[in-house]
Amino acid sequence: MKTSDFKYDLPEELIAQDPLEDRSASRLMVLDKVTGEISHHIFKEIVDYIEPGDCLVINDTKVIPARLIGEKVGTGGKVELLLLKRKADNIWETLVKPGKKAKVGAKISFGEGLLIGEIIDIIDEGNRLVKFTYEGIFEEVLDKLGEMPLPPYITHKLKDKDRYNTVYAKNSGSAAAPTAGLHFTPELLEELQNKGVNIARVTLHVGLGTFRPVKVEDVTKHHMHSEFYIVSKETADMINKTKEAGKRVICVGTTSCRTIESAADEDGRLKETSGWTEIFIYPGYKFKVLDALITNFHLPESTLIMLVSAIAGKENILNAYNQAVKEKYRFFSFGDAMFIH
Prior knowledge:
Layout lengths: L26 E5 L6 E5 L12 E5 L1 E3 L3 E6 L5 E11 L2 E7 L9 E4 L4 E8 L5 E7 L3 H8 L25 E4 L11 H9 L3 E7 L22 E5 L1 H12 L4 E4 L1 H10 L9 E5 L14 E5 L6 H10 L1 H13 L10 E4 L1
Parallel strand pairs: 1-17, 3-12, 3-14, 4-11, 14-16
Antiparallel strand pairs: 1-2, 5-6, 5-8, 6-7, 7-10, 8-9, 9-10, 12-13, 13-15, 16-17
């Protein structure tokens, strides 16, 4: 299986640069994973496709304002730093640009000294371990100085930080949003609950590996970055009961999908658990828990388009994507949605 098998042509003007005013007003393509049949809707009509007793799995991770712009102490040279993973209380794995200014021992000042970062090690792929010193609470300092780490294909500045988080975001730690969840409003979630749909929360802190291109032509040789996840007892029980009742487990986003598939045993049962996952889902994968998926439209040749192809088949997905281009759907993080069932 080749990476180039997952290529499609996308005009640049279809990459959504700004979120819609009304989260639930985005478009929704509904794809039958068996027949390949496609229909076109508005996202709030998702309620019509989810039945009482079905379980909607949402990822409640929260994106932190992880992009920091500072100056190298001593020279004043501009340095950009992106927080990737917290390794200890005040030590983070980071991506630093330009790397040549980030030698071990170098110090970077943010907000005129409100936050100081010292490079203490250089690790995998040139990432830096940075130790921070500051007064007060780190999260409050970060909220004051940091910017949202928008994906590289979004060139517009985000007016409202909250729009790159879901309305149910709770557990801080992501460097990127679980974007399929951006379409939900509190009203829409309430409508689903009133209909008898169960909502299960998982946490997977999304890393930048999400945007990293697949650099090998043989798909099976690609290595995923590890991401931390949590499944509570309440969520495990809810999903197990849904399966026992013959109802569907519907994941909101590829991150929710990867969490429950990582946490499930060979029989598709879940228990309370947490850990790191490097699961890579591509065609040929046998799903243990997932029945349906709400997702956005993904980059060509990405691990995410491979994942959705594992659910619906590569031909069905590429046909759907070509239709989406023809119908001028909006693509990627702030774009439109797809329901694969």
